Each structure stands twice: as structure tokens, then as C-alpha cells.
Amino acid sequence: PTRLLDVGKSGPTIRLETEFSADFNEHYLTLSHCWGGADVPILTVGTVQKFSAGIQIISLPKTFRDAVKATRELGIRYLWIDSICIIQDSQFDWRAESAKMREVYSNALCNLAALGGENSHSGLFFDRSLEQLMHLRPLWIHKRIPGSPFVSSYKLIDRWKQLEKFEKSPLVKRAWVMQERFLAPRVVYFGREELYWECKSRMASESLQEDCCERCYPSYFLKTQYKHFTDAGFRNNWYEILDSYTQMQLTYPSDILIALSGIAKDFQQFNLDEYVVGMWKRSLLSDLCWEVDMPGRPSTYRAPSWSWASLHGRVT
């Protein structure tokens, strides 16, 4: 990243780090969060020097404060938060940094995801009932005792209800966050009732075993399979990505291609093809056979009319 927040080990302040040596190789974390219209601190041309001198942690919204705490507790020195590490009133800087999302997220040690909040004031940590997560062990009784050879304590978990809470979170419906999930090597989701973990091979939660979380883990996240793909495999996988991506929400519809650019760059290292406005050169003829469910045309130009990105709506 061009900039990182140096959270240190303790203390009431953090600061924006803007200069790094050529051999910089420190671990850092990233944060996925919903802005949600909340009043969040942003980096501007006029506040770069101020933030570099120091930022009072108490002045940050709760999600940011919790992210700083989590970063320190994990023994990591640096944290990347989009609103404070990208100059928000500079179109040049925003464009340049947005194009680096693949590098920012894929090189992070882990991504912290604020699953339980609708805005940056919700936080990562919540009061919760441990009963939902309590694991009860069986109690074995000698088989010579009349009646059942054993009894066991157990609880029933509606796994679909648990997964539905994940899927309906405002965070995972965001297009930018889909890209962040795809790029990050590891993600820890802080939900209101439990934690979820995700990497490039599987997903799990506190209450559900790995195989129970498959519904929330898209097949295209499993990058270990990419090296075995034929052109047809890459093509079908890209279509799955587009189907999911075009159902996601964007605050600014003009971001439709740039919020996908990190995924495209990552995908390109496997298929070794030329990216063309949301499609691929080798499969361009079939890529042009797209259809949009309930299409809507944006008021401003964002892509050629032959590209799916020129319209609103789910692409198939």
C-alpha cells in the first residue's frame, strides 16, 4: 500500500505512515466495513500532514477503534483502512489507489470484516449469548446399567438460519467487499453472534463445521483449482463471478468496472488473457452473448454498449 496506519503496541494515538523503505516487509491487516452514510474520518489533501502527526483513537468511529484493538492484540503494527489511507478529495489519488486493490488486499496478512454492522459506528465486537455457541460433550454411562447404554447432551442448530445471517449482512452484499473477499488470503468476519473464518480453501464458523458453510463459499474462491482449468473452465468461472458480482450493491454505479478490476487482475495471472471491459479476448465471442435481467441504462456513460457493464442488472 502507498499508506498504512501505524497502530503501535499501545497508547491513545495512531498515525498515518506515508514513507516506507524499499525493503519494507512488515505484516499488515486490512478492514472491510460499510460506510453506511456514517460520518467517518477521511483523508484529504489538507489532512495528510495532520494524520501523519497522529490521530486520537477516541475520535474514530467504533469499527475503526475495534480494528485498531484487534490489530494490536494480534501483534501486528500496521492497518489499512480505505477512508484514511486513500485521499478522498483527490480524483487522481482515488483512481490510482483503487487500481491497486489487488496488491493491497492480496498482500495483507488478514482482512478484518465488520459483518455485524450497517455503518462504521457499529463496531467489530458485540455482547452476545454464549449459549448459542456452547458445545456440550456426551456423558457416557456404563452399558450394564439398565436402559440406554449412554446418554448425550446435544443442541440443535438451524444451520441454514445461521448461514442466512451471513448472507443477508449488508457487508457481503457490497460489490467492493466481494472483491476484498476474493483477494484477501484470509478473512475474519466479526458477526453479532459469532465469528466466521475464510481462506482460499474453505470457510468455517464458531457454530458450524467447515462442510456446513459451503453455501456461503463461492466455488470461484477456490483458487487452487485454477491451475487445472482449460479455457472453458476459466470462461465458466468468470461467468459465475459476473453473475454474483452484478447482484452486489454499489453506492456509485460508475465504479462497476473499477470495483472488479482487482479480481480481473488476479484472474489474469491464471488465464493469461487480455482483459477487455469486463470480458476476455480469447473468449470474446461467447462473452458477448450476455443477458441482463431487468436491465436499466445508467444516466452517464461507463462502458461501450456491447459490454455488460454498460447496463444495470444481473448478468447471465
From TrEMBL:
InterPro entries, per the entry: HET
Superkingdom per UniProt: Eukaryota
Domain Heterokaryon incompatibility: 28-180
Xref: PANTHER family: DOMAIN PROTEIN, PUTATIVE-RELATED, TOL
Protein name: HET-domain-containing protein
Species: Lepidopterella palustris CBS 459.81
